[in-house]
Amino acid sequence: MTVDIGLIESLDILADLKYVEMEQLTSLMRKMKVTEGEVITRRGDGAHAFFIVFSGDFMVSFNDGRAITLHNKGDIIGCSTVVAPFNYTGTATALTNGEVLSMPGQDFLSLIKSDPALSDKIMKKINMIISERSPFLGTVTR
Amino acid sequence: MFGLDAISTHNGWHMAALGISIVFTGLVLLSIAVAQIHKILQIYDKRDTYIKRIKNIFRKKNNLESNSSDLSLSEKVNGAVSQCRILIDKMGEPFSLPRLINLSEKYGMSHPYSTINDLINAGFIVPDGKGYFLWNQDDKKIIRL
Q1: For the segment A73-130, what is each residue's pLDDT rounded down to a tens digit?
Q2: How would CATH label the architecture of A5-136?
Q3: A96 closest CB neighbour out of B117, B130, B132
Q4: Residue in chain B nearest A70 by alpha carbon
Q5: Domain ranges of chain A
Q6: B131 CB-near residues (< 8 Å, 6+ apart)
Q7: How many angstroms from the chain centroid is the CA of residue B59?
Q8: Which of B116, B120, B130 lies nearest to residue A135, judging by beta carbons?
């Protein structure tokens, strides 16, 4: 399902973007329904897609049984799509039925690489989220 | 035939009585309506208050419906509380959330993901800030709420 720009305007991660930049991102986005217990990303797998939570609750589990839960619209899953070595560091599971906006990892990365201004805005937010989550990663095995 | 005989023969008296009673009934009803005009005007003057009252009645009905759905949610949560406490006692604290979900599934909890999510949202299960989770020591307060 394609995504209308009106749906993403309010998302925190995209708050500073210009309309044109949002248009570029929405052209990559697809709205995806997920069901309770569905695994969206698996730790160690190649990071093939970047997800933005649209509705529902999610758990991202890391090494040593550590986990965080995501309950807010705009939370992101799959930061590894834009961070080397491009493998998921956590397993994301839907705790409830919900919807996510997904973007193919390669296309998202290419877009960011081709537009320094966009890259600067998005990477600033993604780095912030990575630094918040890094204490939960434990001993990362790849 | 003329005069009173003609009136009697053609039910004139009955028709006169019926006419009089219709007219008088109309007059009585009219006088009652006139006597109550002040009340009608009062209702018209306070129409905003009455509209609000009617709206409140509908709101109360809607609240009752949402409260009943909250009740069913709290019943579901309260049912899961005892099950999870046993598992958490077994695992020790702080505990791993994915492991709790796995164990809950193993021990036959229906919808373990959403049920444990409900417990997190209700404040029974809280993160310890290091990636693990704790059972909220104030759970009795939560149950009373």
Answers
A1: 989 999 899 888 889 999 999 999 999 999 999 999 999 889 898 888 888 888 888 8
A2: Sandwich (2.60)
A3: B117
A4: B117
A5: 5-136
A6: A62, A64, A65, A66, A67, A68, A135, A136, A138
A7: 7
A8: B130
